[in-house]
Input
Amino acid sequence: MTARLSLLLSLLIGLHFCVAAQTIELLTSGKATSIRGLSPVSDDIVWVSGSQGTVGRSLDGGKTWKWITVKGFEKTDFRDIEAFNATTAIIMGIAEPARILKTTDGGDSWKVVFTDSTKGMFLDAMDFYDNKHGVVVGDPIDSKFFIAKTTNGGNTWKKTPAIMQSNAVAGEACFASSGSNIHYFRNKDFLFVSGGTVSRLHDDAGGRLIPIIQGKESTGANSIAVRSDGPRVSNTFIITGGDFSNDKDTTRNCVLTNDGGQSWFHPATPPHGYRSSVTYISNKKLVCCGTSGVDLSTDGGLNWRLISETGYHVCRKAKRGKTVFFAGSNGRIAKLVL
Output
């Protein structure tokens, strides 16, 4: 064996063990709640929200948790949460009626900052680009997607006039599966993805078809992640979804674009099933999760490797840190170990 061949073999073996070492570490489970809201502020401060009016907070990276049942909202499903620090967070109750609540004392008390009892109102996800500016998207009412924004950290919300809202076609809606189907850019533009009989990318220009599986209520886009390009608005992003009624099906469950959705391409090796959430770890490394497992990509989303068959609803990287956290059914919370 030549010295060059020996060196190449050593590098390949090293790369194999490096990739193989990436695992999911379970932090807690067993609580009777399905968690779809996840907001890691840092490697230590992590907030979650879920069914049965449940909110959780950890200040030590998930080692210990403070669990809260929001008084008066014991039956509410809080599908999304946005946390700003150890004491301040916003939670989104999806429907009957739709409500948004805020705490500034670590969850000891909550104030209702938005409510809407309109028939058919169903909130799907929120996103903030800083501690003041946020947007929430909801399912269509009278063929218009509901949009509201805040400019004061969620203290008040202003509905977007119907004339400015995105039109929906019959059978099109959003999935409140992970709180990650919308992205708010720092230039105050935002993108969100829909699913159902039609799956589209929506922005100020309207809706554009996404080449992802669609055609029935259980299919379509669930999550969008935008690559960080510093202060510039990035045109590189990824969308995941699939068919949650057949969660191991890999058919057109992921698409990518490098030009803001003008053109699309599919991974050479797709994620291994329906994926309700996707997030960038770095420009080349991504992770996605769904009810049938967790996949990792180290080449910008072109190829995916299954690293866990345990299902999770949502994955998020810490805003001011490096840790990637997961949350799912049965109060399950975990982190990625690289």
